[in-house]
Every structure is written in structure tokens, then in C-alpha cells.
Amino acid sequence: MLASYLIGLREGLEATLVVSILVAFLVKSDRRDKLSLVWTGVAAAVALSIAFGALLSFTAAHLAFEQQELFEAVASIAATVFVTWMIFWMRGAARKIASDLRAKLGDALQVGSVAVAVMAFLSVVREGLETSLLFFASAQGASTTATPLIGISLGVLTSILIGWGIYASAIRVNLTKFFTWTGLLLILVAGGILKYGVHDLQEAAILPGLNNLAFDISGVLDPGAWYSALLGGMFNITAAPTVLEVVAWVVYVLPVLFLFLRPAATAGPPKVAAESVS
Known about the structure:
Elements: H1 2-28, H2 35-61, H3 65-93, H4 97-111, H5 113-139, H6 146-167, H7 175-203, H8 226-235, H9 243-261
């Protein structure tokens, strides 16, 4: 649930900030008549994202065992790529996202009503599709999809409340710190998703070494204990991983953490420490 909550919170806040910026721009520009177009685009993006998630689940449920394992492995690897790209993109884009969106919406207003709806749709749908893919990938290690679904729903709900508070100027969020800390946690989550993808490839007989364990600490990490469920659900840490799983985790996590924590090559400190979209 925690991993799904983090995904929902992070992706949901990005989408909520986008919507808040668009709404604030229209309100301040005295173009409230175009607000319905923004909500139309947002609704279409949400609907497509839900349909994409349902398609992933439906497809996986109607495949043979090895095909299902291969499908889930591809989804896990794709989710790892997307979350890594998203983490680094947001680190650089957070400082100028508001100005970029205002400029694009201004251009869309000049083109016409449909362009406004399309612009809102495109601004939100990327986050929605990423959320669906990440949810599907992270839910594969869960015993039931209900728990991850609750987690991601709570995360999205929290992000909506935070976004509304920012829009209403009721709260100010240090977005630089928020995206840094959630980025660090998501790198570990993504490492776990990749590790699970490698295990799926071994289950599908694409990669060897399914029975070649790196270590077995089942005597220390009780599979039935709450902390084992926490580590497994959040970071896919298991008591008896294969050698390839461990290698994949280390090869991904260590370089990505190094690159993420490396100081950005920009002059001066980030200018968006506390963000207000209004």
C-alpha cells in the first residue's frame, strides 16, 4: 500500500499542479468561460488512464502462465524506465513548469476552444498513463490488488487536497524538497519493480538462474511478519532473491541514486522553493 500511495501522491500531485496552473491562469485572465474545456480535457485523460489500466489487467489475466510472466516483466521494465524519466524530468522542469503551461495555454486560447481541451488533456494524460502502468507493475507483487488500489487512491486523494490548498494559497509546499524526497523513495520503488521484472523473466524461462539464489535470510526476515510485508510491498525486498535479481537492483539503484543526488549543473539555487500556482 505504501508504494502505491507514494506513486499516487507523486503522480497525482504533478497532475493536480498542472490543472491548478491552468485553472488559475484562466481565472486571472478573466476567461472563466473556458474552464469547462479544461475539465473536459482532464476528464478524458482520467478516463483513458483508467481504461489503460483495465486493459493491462485484462490482458494479463487472459494469458498462459509463461506469457503472463513475460507480459508482467515487460510492464515492470517499462514502468521502471518511465518512473526514472519522470523523476529526472520533474527535477529540471519544476522550476519552469508554471510559466511553460501558461504560455502553452495562451497559445491554445488563440487557436480555439478545442485546442484548450486538447492541451489540458495532453498535460494530464501522461501522468495518468504513467500512474496506470506503475500501479499495474507494483501490484504484481501483492497478494491482492485491493491493497495497492486503496494505496494509490489515497495517494491521489491526498495530492488533490494538497493541490487545492496550493491553489487557494492556504498552504505553501516546498516543491524542490518534495520532489527530491519522493524521487529518492521512487528510485528504490523502481529498483524493486525492476527486480520483480527480472524475476518474471526468469519465471518465463527467458532468463536463467531461477533457482540460483543470492542468499536466503528467511530465518531472519520472516515472510509472515509485518515488516517483511512492508519491505516487500514498498521496495520488493525478499528473503531469497536470485542472483540476477540482486544484480539488476544494484546496477539500477546505485547509478541512478548517484546521478539524482549529484548537484545540478546550474548557476545559483533553485528559484521555486515554495510554489504557488495562483
